[in-house]
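Forwarding the complex inputs:
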Amino acid sequence: MGASSLIVLIIAAIAFSGIAILVSKFVLKPGTNKQKGEPYECGIPTQGKTWTQLNVGYYLFALIFLIFDVELVFLFPWAVVAKGMGWIAMIEIVIFFFILFMGFLYAHKKGALKWM
Amino acid sequence: MWSFSNIANNIHAWLGNNFNPTMTLVIEMVLAGVAVIGLFAGLGLVLVIMERKVSAWMQIRLGPNRVGPKGMLQSLADTIKLIVKEGLTPDGADKFLFNLAPFIAMIVAMLLMAPIAFAKDFQLWDLNIGVLFVSAVSSIMVISILMAGWASNNKYSLMGAMRSGAQIVSYELSAGLSILTIVVLSGSLSVSDIIYSQADGWWIFKGHIPVLIAFVTFIIAVTAETNRAPFDLAEAESELTAGFHTEYSGMKFALFFLAEYVNVFIVCAIGATLFLGGWMPFHIGSWEGFNQVMDYIPSSIWFFGKTFFLIFVIMWFRWTFPRLRIDQLLNLEWKYLLPISMINLLIVTAMAILKWHF
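Prediction (whole assembly, two chains):
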């Protein structure tokens, strides 16, 4: 069907979820009470703010991921031609991985991969 | 012979004869949309009942057995129940993001349907970068989860979303690298080219041990990417109630649930396409007679058989391994899977250049 299928799929997804939510809104008559909108915390009243500071570890992993994800994007065009190019492709990718691995080892040495 | 591509071509020809080109295109689009929605809903119903039946079977109990024959209509009854529940938005939540998140989850799951070949020459869009499309679009999934967790104004949700973010982005790397091994071997990013390159045997048999390693890495990585046990830290019931969808109820919860199960189906379909030949029947090299006998089984049955086998394997994991802690989870990826899959990619490249595969 070609690229137009993406538009069809997006419209289908929105229509499906929209209709499902609208139908359920239409079917029921919700009552109200004071406690209904409170965030669920196993029955006891909420303590403190929700949006507080979180462990920095999540952020560090996201940063290292960024490097490797860009690397992965570079690998896709390489992978298509690798078989045809022969050993030149192999040598290039070994050099590429070597540099990348140095960075990885540096991050490891600095303790970025350790969960604090 | 009766096949999906024949039916599609016949419909296309019939519409072309009876309507003008614009009308044909519009009708085809509507048909494709309705078919995909039907497949989506059907998959959700089937996979939920399958999950519960497999769980029951693993734990030697009966599972759902009241609604319909052998409890097969249970998930339909659950859907009706979810429709009549209220979709609550908690006080203090970011209303826009809170309501947007299930839509994004659904759109991502739906978009991933585009490059999957369900039967011989039967796919929505045979784009030449199909594999790249899949890995690019599937990484949008994490945005919907982070959105849901952040907007809920609930500590459990936020924590679940953060865990899920760290987990999904980490495991995407080794999933990507193991996909690349097949791209190197077949020399194409297009899904149909990869399937046709397996006409004389599936890559998992042709590629010796390195491809087997890539396959195992892929299965582990996609189990983590779809937040399935033993990597279900994002919604660990015993710690975070329900993780990022704690505050979701009614149909919005159902949409997340549906998107999750369809994602499991999609990653298994991709795994089946790359490693087990997609719709390609079980062929052995130049055994012409054997290959012809195998061709009698329709291609859609091969595709769905392989995919559901992989889904069964992922459900099997759930009852085999205990849940990992977040630091163990990230260690497993960064210290074992990522170096292993990088070295494995080098080995596969050498193998492809030396033509050591069959």
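Residues 21-58 of chain B form the longest helix (38 residues).
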